[in-house]
Amino acid sequence: MKVNNSIALDAETCFEELGEILGVWEKHEALTFPEATDSHVNEQRLFTPGARAKAQHCLRVLLAHHSALQEFGAALTLLDALVSMASKIESSHPSPFLTMEELMELASLAAIVRLVLKCGAVSLSQGPLISVVEEHLELGEALQTDLITARELRIVATMAGRVAAPSLPAPGQWLSSVLGRLEVLAAPQPEQAGEFEVAMRSATAATDLLARRVGMSPAFPPRVLAMGGCVLGLVAVGAVAADEARPRTVSLSLWESLLTLWPGGLAKQDSFKPMLGFDLELVAKAACCNSDDLQVWAFRSAQGLHDAVNSNWWSALGFPSQLMSSLVPCQ
Which of 175, 219, 177 is nearest to 201 (CA)? Predict the structure, then answer.
């Protein structure tokens, strides 16, 4: 009995601590991704067609040379946060802010990777030196190295030091904390463990896809992306009813047309009756929000992916269709 009480206490403590973490992250995120006061400002439009896809491809290549692809999500979050900052810069604004053109340069992307590696969980002593990798990629010339260092310092100044978790958590970190709380609330039985794991993997995959294809902005910050991806991933495996996740202001036909982009999202729910199901209110409690928020965020996420697919960035760049499936999950 003492063992059982101890387990219950540990789970309750974990639940409360993760909730406190989410509250702190939400405050930090409001500073990094503030809503634009000018309704005409839309930072996602500041990317030329294919620009973000090219940038994330470069980030992935750099991280791959460091054997640190698990930091890909952190790098994308920092990139999008800097774009959010750049969207608010007036032409007369002084340094240290980077312009959109500067952000898309390889020196800036290399600086982002440097910061992510220094602040991340990857041990730099176990991989190649940053200077060695940059030299291999022809970024090691004296002038280029100086430029990367200067960009690194400007990024830190622009972000007021908020360049990585816990002050700038990536969507994957948001999701991991929420899924930890959801596991405590759902308390899956041993026979449900397999389905619970499938549901968690589906939520992670949906969030990864949104981070790569849609990206983050003041209107779509990491928390919204993660929670929207969480709901859509749970819907895709039947753990949450598709209609329960639909905002009441969105027509059923529109909702179903958006969900067709999520493999098995509707068809699987007709043929697969899971032993484990989540009420949306339970997911909302785990996410420290309300179910109406989750519905709106899920709709924004589905609509965002729909728009990103229609923009056809990847094919415009000549990237093979297999590229998306080969990308590792963002952490």
Answer: 175
Residues, the chain, total? 331
Q: Which two tokens stand for residue 84?
A: 């959010």
Q: Which amino acid is at 316?
A: A
End-to-end CA distance of the chain: 37
Q: Are residues 134 and 265 in the same domain?
A: no
Q: Is the pTM of this model over 0.85?
A: no
Instruction: Please state the separation of Cα 271 from the chain's center in Å.
Output: 30
Going from the C-alpha of 121 to that of each of 71, 148, 169, the distances in angstroms are 8, 22, 13
Same domain, 87 and 214: no
Q: Name the residue type at position 274.
A: P
**Chain-centre distance of CA 144, in angstroms?**
30
One domain for residues 152 and 199: no
pLDDT string in tens for the chain (331-residue length):
344 444 555 777 888 899 999 999 999 998 888 875 544 444 444 566 588 888 999 999 999 988 889 999 999 999 999 988 876 654 445 556 788 889 999 999 999 999 999 988 777 667 777 777 787 777 777 668 889 999 999 999 999 899 988 899 999 999 999 999 999 999 888 888 899 999 999 999 999 999 998 999 999 999 999 999 999 999 999 999 999 999 999 999 999 999 887 655 444 444 445 567 889 999 999 999 999 999 999 999 999 998 887 765 444 444 333 333 333 344 4
Same domain, 77 and 192: no
Give the domain range for residue 310. Answer: 171-326
